[in-house]
## 1
Amino acid sequence: MKRRPSASPKGAGTRRALGPSQAILLVVLVIGLVAAACSSDEPDQTTTQIIEPGDVATLDDGTEVLTQGILVISGDTRLCGAIADSPPPRCEGPSAILGDLSPDDIVALNSASDPEVGELSWTSYELAVSGTVDNGILVNVEIANRVYPAVGDGLRMRLVWSQSPFFPRQLRSGEEIRWAVDITNILDEPIELTFTSGQVAEVTLSDGDTEVYRWADGKVFTQEINEVEFEAGRTSGATLADLFVLDPGTYTLRAWVVATGAENAVIEAPVEVIEN
């Protein structure tokens, strides 16, 4: 049976996006993927440069790029090559300014008000985006992470995964992964949700009828009942970190919110796992 061993997420600290050697690996992997695919909704990597966020400002106008980093919105919208874990979330070192990216398109976008910087939004995972360089900023921005949606019980659920370096369609075994999920109340009235523990979401992979990966395995959650009145139009998200280890193959991914009242908002899709 294909089963991952128990593992804990990698340690905290300054988190970084693509390094030079990773970018070279990524070019080889992604170009191979594009050549093999019958159809694709990812950018054409045969003409797209894969770069660090901080390199955007150094490129000529009209250059098409793919880049990855932590998104921070505070006045302007930036993709950070590295970000400090100490609050408030902020870029450390060079970053890319994104000219036209709607916050509504970002899965699991955190928001807060900080006394130093005011209103602030950020991702807890590395977002991959494509776009065109124009006067030192990135425009015509599109999210490159594949978004998996589902609707049920008056809720819209979305999931993306993030690994570094970015790989558009396949999960890599032996690497840290971040599953980012959010739900939105699409009704005109509140929805009552009841959580029975500190766990808010779950992700599993199955090989046929056999479950071979469960994000919550080996993790401990607070045991308390939390009843939430989820208001109309409200969005709430979470990012689930793990060390992802699984035999190569094709699996069925499922993801859902672990709450009474959201039983039918379940994402289900085939995914492919490859060796790192």
Note: The chain has two domains: 15-143, 148-275.
## 2
Amino acid sequence: MDGDDTASRDGPFGSGAFAFAEWRTPFTNAPVAILDVRYAPRGTEARRIAHPADQDGHDLVARVRIRDTQAIYRVTFTDIAAMRLLDEGGLLEFWQKTEARGGRPGRTTFRVRNHAWTRESVISFLPSDGWSYVIASDDECLEVVSAAVPQVTAETPPAP
């Protein structure tokens, strides 16, 4: 399942105008736990924990569990320029902008650009026109700069 990339009307990349945009997934507004994040050779199961020295030919695979239904989804990122996994407290700018704007396109999955990391690592964001994909849980957040829309597939169905 691909996410819908409805873009925000905020400023273009590099304008300095912080922007959120939609990234629809089966868990866009559901509380999730990030189970693991791993690099894997393209087209294989994610078994490698360490960052490969050469990202070419590797995908970044994240597994998330919806807390309410226990359904597990695999999110596969290709064409990765950068990634970070950090405590949700490390993204204070996101939460302040969410509050100031009265919300964002999704509680758990969304896109963002022209934020602090963009300004710190401009070259990393060039392939994606400044956008990064975010999975935000109550405990940690995964942010990935990718020129391609991540693929989301069900690994286990929701519990009845």
Note: The chain has three helices and nine strands.
## 3
Amino acid sequence: MNSMNDDMNDESMEMDDDFAAMFEASLAGIGQELQAGMKITATLLQCGSEWTFLDVGQKGEGILATAELLDAEGQLTAAVGDQISVYFISRKDGELRFTTKVGGSGSGTEPLQQAYQAGIPVEGRIDKEIKGGYDIAMPGNVRAFCPFSQVGLRPTDASELIGRTLSFRITQLDERGRNIVVSHRVLLDEERSQQRESLRQTLKEGQLVHGTVTSLRDFGAFVDIGGIEGLLPISEVSYGRVEDISTVLEVGRQLDLIVKKIDWVNNKFSFSLRDTLADPWLKVGSSYQVGGKYPGTVSRLAQFGAFVTLAEGIDGLLHISKMGDGQRIRHPQDLFKVGQPLTVVIEKIDEGEKRISLALAGAVDEVTATSYSEGSSGSAMGTLGELLKAGQQKKERRQRK
């Protein structure tokens, strides 16, 4: 009996401990000191005609003007249960007032003064380009100035900006409400900083990501995946050789990429477009045979030979020793030029090393898969060199006849 009572007492204590832990957890977000301008994430509890009630993790509910959630047609852009980002304005009589941004009509600079002091974004319309930046129409029939460098993360043509309404942060405002300077870029930088921190937790090498080409260079393209910008090397664009990246990519192009390398310390990231494509070498065995004749195009010339493209991503080497019909050649460029079409014979395929050895069609008797195999196995046919020599001698005998 005593043992049973002890067990019941232990179970009761465990329940008390669990309840205490749950109670503390429920209070974890309560009492956090809110500062004017603080940005938090709130959950919509109820949307009324004038006010929307928010769960902001505090003892009381937060309120937000419902008008801030309406689109141009007067329709709500959020629903009960949605999470939105809001800025704390003030606390009065237990009422917590929030806003998403300062905007709308009206007159005077008082709302802008409050937004400036609290760091709350303000809506403004880019009206025209002026010396050094843009003239911005702000709430209250007030004008502001946004420098070129502060309108975005990268230079943008004025024609794409004039007439647009954006969110700005007031960075300078004197006591009389004049000389107002605003920045859109500072808000973008804050957003990217949040995205970057999120990526630090989730981004892995080998992961598929979506990005936008931001600039092109001779060595590759820079791509923004939202939070970080990385390099897509020209060698990782395609299985085929790319000489000029501008022929295959352009700024603004949307791409799916594989993450190749991540270096948070040095802020260096690299991607691959090629790794998202099917490897053309997987079909080499079924598409090409030793001894077969195939059309190709000279893609590159080197001291030791010419590289010939048989298909995109499939190149073979025509060695310099296979050129000149027995005459000594100083450099392949003496006979060929890049872009020149050729008909070649495949002498050898090494799928493991992804290498194909070529000879010029018509220079020697055709090399069949059987004769190449027999020659390399040490049969009476001899080596490949001996086989080619025998073919040349046979041709000379025909010519003498």
Note: Confidence is low (pLDDT under 50) at residues 19-31, 365-388.
## 4
Amino acid sequence: MMDSLRLIGYAGYASFSSRSLQTNFCPPKAMSNFVSANKANTPTQNDCTNRNSCATVNVTRGELILEGRNLQEIPKETALAYGPTTKLLNLKENSIMNANNIDLFANLTTLILDKNDLTSLAFFPVMPSVKTLWFNNNRCSNLNAICQDLSRCFPNLEYLSMLNNPCCPAFYDDTILGADKYRRYRLLVSFHLKKLRFLDATPISQKERSEANSKGQFLGKTAKPTKKSSRPLSPGMSKEEQEYERQKQLKKLKAKRRASSSLLGIGNPEHRYDGKHSEGNRFITNNDL
């Protein structure tokens, strides 16, 4: 049962019961309707007129819950009222499209962005206080790009979960190829996030950290063959380089000769059979015709 109603912060109401301290935030327009609906000391409710801008706040734990409200950004009045004291911000199952007002959460340590259909975090500001990020069930397909975003936005990140993103291989795939993909994924993420301790609920081992430091810079790159023309031999080239260039040019010359030679002059275009000096009938007499 609700013992009392009290205004908190910028504009909101708090319901304090004997069992817990839980605050349900609504902007001023929705607050009056809620108060009139609870005059008879009814139990605390999370519903209000404009559900998209209502919030559930745990005063003692510093938790702000904005889950499942179809938000495209954090409401400004909510950020002003609870940003400075919020430690955990839950934005799960929304439609976040920008990072407006998130800079007001200066002391945030845990950010939950699950199920927001996000493909990137490029629009997020630098948040050095965040140490835990939940980024599951989004639509990020570019692992290199998201790793760069994470290292820029959350330089002190220690706990990260990105399960069920297109860029995240299935950790339960026990095939040789699947296991190798997930291993390379962990190494690349660990390379970009130097302070990361857990990835997808699995600790980063010392072996993974060492391998990530030595190989991580190469894992995000794909070697592409380039068409190079043979360069002239330079006096500044080493003997090995000069010999390599000679052999390469010799192979090209031989290949060109083979392509231009006739059937009876394979490999040497200077000795072609053209039939000018043919003596094919020299040993044929009239009786043989």
Note: The helical segments are 28-37, 76-82, 143-153, 176-192, 206-219, 239-260.
